[in-house]
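JOB MANIFEST
job_type = single_chain_structure
chain_count = 1
residues = 289
[input]
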Amino acid sequence: MPRIELLLKTSTVPSRKVLFKAMKLASQLSGSIEIFVEDYRRSEDHTFLDFLSDSSGKRQRLGDQYLQWTAQVLEKAKQVAEDEELQYSIDFHRLEGRKWISQLTKALSGDLNLLLIDHSDKSVSPELLSALTRMNRNALLLGDKLWSSSPPVLAAIDPLHREDTAAKTDDAIVVAGRQISNMLSSKLTLVYCQYVAGYLNEYKNQILKGQKDGVLDFVEDRGLQKLPIHFAKGNPEVALPEAVSNSRAAILVMGACRRGSVSRFWAGSTVDVLLKKPPCDLLLVAAME
Protein backbone atom coordinates (compact mmCIF):
# COMPACT_ATOMS: atom_id res chain seq x y z
CA MET A 1 0.00 0.00 0.00
CA PRO A 2 1.43 3.44 -0.90
CA ARG A 3 1.94 5.84 1.98
CA ILE A 4 2.15 9.58 2.44
CA GLU A 5 5.00 10.59 4.74
CA LEU A 6 4.45 13.71 6.85
CA LEU A 7 6.92 15.40 9.20
CA LEU A 8 5.49 17.21 12.24
CA LYS A 9 6.89 18.65 15.49
CA THR A 10 5.64 17.99 19.00
CA SER A 11 6.17 21.70 19.73
CA THR A 12 2.90 22.42 17.92
CA VAL A 13 -0.26 20.60 16.91
CA PRO A 14 -0.71 20.79 13.10
CA SER A 15 -3.57 22.85 11.72
CA ARG A 16 -6.65 21.31 10.15
CA LYS A 17 -5.49 22.62 6.76
CA VAL A 18 -2.11 20.87 6.96
CA LEU A 19 -3.72 17.62 8.06
CA PHE A 20 -6.37 17.90 5.35
CA LYS A 21 -3.74 18.23 2.62
CA ALA A 22 -1.88 15.13 3.78
CA MET A 23 -5.12 13.20 4.15
CA LYS A 24 -6.34 14.33 0.72
CA LEU A 25 -3.15 13.09 -0.95
CA ALA A 26 -3.35 9.79 0.92
CA SER A 27 -7.01 9.42 -0.08
CA GLN A 28 -6.17 10.07 -3.74
CA LEU A 29 -3.62 7.24 -3.56
CA SER A 30 -5.80 4.97 -1.43
CA GLY A 31 -2.84 4.90 0.91
CA SER A 32 -1.95 5.47 4.55
CA ILE A 33 -0.24 8.34 6.36
CA GLU A 34 3.04 7.79 8.22
CA ILE A 35 3.61 10.73 10.56
CA PHE A 36 7.23 11.27 11.56
CA VAL A 37 7.41 13.32 14.73
CA GLU A 38 10.38 15.50 15.61
CA ASP A 39 10.49 15.24 19.41
CA TYR A 40 13.84 16.86 20.07
CA ARG A 41 13.91 19.29 23.01
CA ARG A 42 16.47 22.03 22.58
CA SER A 43 17.82 23.72 25.70
CA GLU A 44 15.44 26.67 25.36
CA ASP A 45 12.47 24.26 25.12
CA HIS A 46 13.06 22.58 28.47
CA THR A 47 10.88 23.53 31.41
CA PHE A 48 11.95 24.19 34.97
CA LEU A 49 10.67 20.73 35.96
CA ASP A 50 13.07 19.14 33.50
CA PHE A 51 16.02 20.50 35.45
CA LEU A 52 14.60 19.29 38.78
CA SER A 53 13.77 15.75 37.63
CA ASP A 54 16.05 12.76 37.41
CA SER A 55 16.47 11.11 34.00
CA SER A 56 13.74 8.49 34.51
CA GLY A 57 11.19 11.06 35.70
CA LYS A 58 12.05 13.39 32.87
CA ARG A 59 11.69 10.61 30.29
CA GLN A 60 8.32 9.57 31.75
CA ARG A 61 6.99 13.13 31.57
CA LEU A 62 8.21 13.59 28.00
CA GLY A 63 6.60 10.28 27.06
CA ASP A 64 3.29 11.42 28.58
CA GLN A 65 3.51 14.71 26.67
CA TYR A 66 4.13 12.82 23.44
CA LEU A 67 1.09 10.61 23.98
CA GLN A 68 -1.06 13.67 24.70
CA TRP A 69 0.21 15.28 21.48
CA THR A 70 -0.59 12.19 19.37
CA ALA A 71 -4.08 12.07 20.88
CA GLN A 72 -4.65 15.70 19.86
CA VAL A 73 -3.48 14.99 16.31
CA LEU A 74 -5.69 11.92 16.00
CA GLU A 75 -8.72 13.83 17.29
CA LYS A 76 -8.15 16.62 14.79
CA ALA A 77 -7.64 14.09 11.96
CA LYS A 78 -10.90 12.42 12.94
CA GLN A 79 -12.72 15.74 12.68
CA VAL A 80 -11.17 16.46 9.27
CA ALA A 81 -12.12 13.01 8.00
CA GLU A 82 -15.73 13.44 9.14
CA ASP A 83 -16.03 16.94 7.66
CA GLU A 84 -14.43 16.01 4.32
CA GLU A 85 -15.71 12.43 4.12
CA LEU A 86 -12.21 10.95 3.88
CA GLN A 87 -11.00 7.47 4.76
CA TYR A 88 -7.66 7.45 6.54
CA SER A 89 -5.08 5.34 8.32
CA ILE A 90 -2.38 7.00 10.47
CA ASP A 91 0.75 5.62 12.13
CA PHE A 92 3.30 7.58 14.18
CA HIS A 93 7.08 7.28 14.20
CA ARG A 94 8.79 9.18 17.02
CA LEU A 95 12.15 10.85 16.30
CA GLU A 96 14.00 11.63 19.53
CA GLY A 97 17.23 13.39 20.41
CA ARG A 98 19.81 15.34 18.48
CA LYS A 99 20.10 12.73 15.73
CA TRP A 100 16.43 12.88 14.73
CA ILE A 101 17.31 13.76 11.11
CA SER A 102 19.37 10.61 10.61
CA GLN A 103 16.55 8.59 12.20
CA LEU A 104 14.14 10.17 9.72
CA THR A 105 16.22 9.54 6.60
CA LYS A 106 16.70 5.89 7.56
CA ALA A 107 12.97 5.40 8.07
CA LEU A 108 11.73 7.06 4.86
CA SER A 109 10.50 4.71 2.15
CA GLY A 110 11.21 5.14 -1.56
CA ASP A 111 7.66 4.76 -2.86
CA LEU A 112 6.86 8.39 -3.75
CA ASN A 113 10.20 10.11 -3.18
CA LEU A 114 8.22 12.82 -1.38
CA LEU A 115 8.22 14.06 2.21
CA LEU A 116 5.46 16.42 3.36
CA ILE A 117 6.60 18.95 5.98
CA ASP A 118 4.45 21.20 8.15
CA HIS A 119 5.78 24.65 7.21
CA SER A 120 2.98 26.72 8.73
CA ASP A 121 5.45 28.39 11.11
CA LYS A 122 7.69 29.34 8.13
CA SER A 123 10.69 27.54 9.65
CA VAL A 124 12.45 24.49 8.33
CA SER A 125 15.83 23.11 9.34
CA PRO A 126 18.59 23.78 6.76
CA GLU A 127 20.23 20.55 7.96
CA LEU A 128 17.04 18.66 7.14
CA LEU A 129 16.83 20.09 3.62
CA SER A 130 20.51 19.30 3.07
CA ALA A 131 19.95 15.70 4.17
CA LEU A 132 16.92 15.32 1.89
CA THR A 133 18.87 16.77 -1.03
CA ARG A 134 21.73 14.33 -0.49
CA MET A 135 19.30 11.40 -0.68
CA ASN A 136 17.51 12.96 -3.68
CA ARG A 137 14.19 13.21 -1.86
CA ASN A 138 11.68 15.93 -2.70
CA ALA A 139 10.01 17.98 0.02
CA LEU A 140 6.51 19.48 -0.08
CA LEU A 141 6.30 22.33 2.43
CA LEU A 142 2.71 22.75 3.58
CA GLY A 143 1.44 26.09 4.84
CA ASP A 144 -1.94 27.18 6.15
CA LYS A 145 -3.44 28.27 2.81
CA LEU A 146 -6.45 26.20 1.83
CA TRP A 147 -6.40 24.05 -1.33
CA SER A 148 -9.28 24.14 -3.78
CA SER A 149 -10.80 20.87 -5.01
CA SER A 150 -8.29 20.77 -7.92
CA PRO A 151 -5.44 23.04 -6.81
CA PRO A 152 -3.42 24.52 -9.72
CA VAL A 153 0.30 23.71 -9.79
CA LEU A 154 3.10 25.90 -11.19
CA ALA A 155 6.48 24.40 -12.16
CA ALA A 156 9.29 26.97 -12.29
CA ILE A 157 11.82 25.96 -14.93
CA ASP A 158 15.11 27.52 -16.04
CA PRO A 159 16.48 25.32 -18.85
CA LEU A 160 18.85 28.08 -20.04
CA HIS A 161 20.85 28.08 -16.79
CA ARG A 162 24.53 28.06 -17.71
CA GLU A 163 25.42 25.71 -14.83
CA ASP A 164 22.89 23.10 -15.97
CA THR A 165 23.14 22.92 -19.74
CA ALA A 166 21.63 19.43 -19.76
CA ALA A 167 18.58 20.82 -17.89
CA LYS A 168 18.52 17.81 -15.54
CA THR A 169 17.03 19.94 -12.79
CA ASP A 170 14.24 21.11 -15.07
CA ASP A 171 13.49 17.54 -16.15
CA ALA A 172 13.15 16.59 -12.47
CA ILE A 173 10.93 19.62 -11.80
CA VAL A 174 8.57 18.65 -14.62
CA VAL A 175 8.41 15.04 -13.41
CA ALA A 176 7.62 16.17 -9.85
CA GLY A 177 5.09 18.70 -11.09
CA ARG A 178 3.30 16.07 -13.13
CA GLN A 179 3.32 13.66 -10.21
CA ILE A 180 1.69 16.06 -7.76
CA SER A 181 -0.78 17.47 -10.30
CA ASN A 182 -1.84 13.94 -11.28
CA MET A 183 -2.30 13.01 -7.64
CA LEU A 184 -4.57 16.02 -7.17
CA SER A 185 -6.26 15.83 -10.61
CA SER A 186 -5.19 19.43 -11.17
CA LYS A 187 -3.70 21.60 -13.90
CA LEU A 188 0.08 21.93 -14.29
CA THR A 189 1.55 25.09 -15.83
CA LEU A 190 5.21 25.76 -16.59
CA VAL A 191 6.57 29.18 -15.67
CA TYR A 192 9.81 30.81 -16.78
CA CYS A 193 11.01 34.13 -15.38
CA GLN A 194 12.43 36.48 -18.01
CA TYR A 195 14.87 38.89 -16.44
CA VAL A 196 17.34 41.27 -18.07
CA ALA A 197 19.88 43.19 -15.98
CA GLY A 198 19.67 46.96 -16.23
CA TYR A 199 23.04 47.38 -17.89
CA LEU A 200 21.78 45.24 -20.79
CA ASN A 201 18.66 47.30 -21.51
CA GLU A 202 20.03 48.25 -24.92
CA TYR A 203 19.71 44.59 -25.94
CA LYS A 204 16.61 43.81 -23.90
CA ASN A 205 14.30 42.83 -26.76
CA GLN A 206 16.86 40.52 -28.34
CA ILE A 207 17.65 38.89 -25.00
CA LEU A 208 13.97 38.33 -24.16
CA LYS A 209 13.37 36.80 -27.58
CA GLY A 210 16.40 34.53 -27.18
CA GLN A 211 15.17 33.41 -23.77
CA LYS A 212 11.69 32.64 -25.09
CA ASP A 213 13.04 30.73 -28.08
CA GLY A 214 15.38 28.70 -25.86
CA VAL A 215 12.59 27.74 -23.46
CA LEU A 216 10.27 26.78 -26.32
CA ASP A 217 13.07 24.60 -27.76
CA PHE A 218 13.30 22.84 -24.37
CA VAL A 219 9.54 22.31 -24.33
CA GLU A 220 9.60 20.87 -27.85
CA ASP A 221 12.61 18.64 -27.19
CA ARG A 222 10.88 17.15 -24.14
CA GLY A 223 7.51 16.78 -25.84
CA LEU A 224 5.83 19.13 -23.38
CA GLN A 225 3.84 21.15 -25.90
CA LYS A 226 0.53 20.19 -24.28
CA LEU A 227 1.54 21.90 -21.04
CA PRO A 228 0.68 25.60 -20.86
CA ILE A 229 3.67 27.89 -20.26
CA HIS A 230 3.72 31.34 -18.72
CA PHE A 231 6.57 33.79 -19.31
CA ALA A 232 6.78 35.93 -16.17
CA LYS A 233 8.63 39.21 -16.46
CA GLY A 234 11.14 40.09 -13.75
CA ASN A 235 13.51 38.68 -11.17
CA PRO A 236 12.28 35.24 -9.94
CA GLU A 237 12.08 36.42 -6.32
CA VAL A 238 9.39 38.90 -7.41
CA ALA A 239 7.99 37.35 -10.58
CA LEU A 240 7.24 33.91 -9.11
CA PRO A 241 5.02 35.19 -6.25
CA GLU A 242 3.20 37.36 -8.79
CA ALA A 243 2.68 34.36 -11.07
CA VAL A 244 1.37 32.34 -8.14
CA SER A 245 -1.06 35.11 -7.23
CA ASN A 246 -2.28 35.64 -10.80
CA SER A 247 -2.82 31.93 -11.43
CA ARG A 248 -4.12 31.20 -7.90
CA ALA A 249 -1.65 28.32 -7.77
CA ALA A 250 -1.68 26.17 -4.64
CA ILE A 251 1.75 24.59 -5.19
CA LEU A 252 4.94 26.00 -6.70
CA VAL A 253 7.49 23.40 -7.84
CA MET A 254 11.12 24.58 -7.72
CA GLY A 255 14.63 23.20 -7.78
CA ALA A 256 15.92 22.80 -4.23
CA CYS A 257 19.62 22.92 -5.14
CA ARG A 258 21.98 25.35 -6.68
CA ARG A 259 22.80 24.07 -10.12
CA GLY A 260 26.20 22.80 -11.14
CA SER A 261 28.56 20.14 -9.82
CA VAL A 262 30.55 22.51 -7.60
CA SER A 263 27.70 23.74 -5.42
CA ARG A 264 25.19 20.93 -4.93
CA PHE A 265 23.68 21.89 -1.58
CA TRP A 266 20.16 22.94 -0.75
CA ALA A 267 18.64 26.26 -1.73
CA GLY A 268 19.64 29.09 -3.97
CA SER A 269 18.78 32.75 -3.54
CA THR A 270 15.22 32.39 -4.86
CA VAL A 271 14.47 29.45 -2.58
CA ASP A 272 15.96 31.34 0.39
CA VAL A 273 13.61 34.27 -0.21
CA LEU A 274 10.48 32.19 -0.79
CA LEU A 275 11.10 29.98 2.25
CA LYS A 276 10.81 33.07 4.43
CA LYS A 277 7.64 34.31 2.73
CA PRO A 278 6.12 31.47 0.68
CA PRO A 279 3.43 32.58 -1.80
CA CYS A 280 1.87 29.10 -1.60
CA ASP A 281 2.95 25.56 -0.72
CA LEU A 282 6.44 24.83 -2.07
CA LEU A 283 7.54 21.55 -3.64
CA LEU A 284 11.35 21.54 -3.52
CA VAL A 285 12.87 19.12 -6.02
CA ALA A 286 16.24 17.53 -5.31
CA ALA A 287 17.46 16.73 -8.83
CA MET A 288 19.89 13.86 -9.27
CA GLU A 289 23.27 14.46 -10.90
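[summary]
Residues 55-84 form the longest helix (30 residues).
The two ends are 29 Å apart (CA to CA).
exit_status = 0
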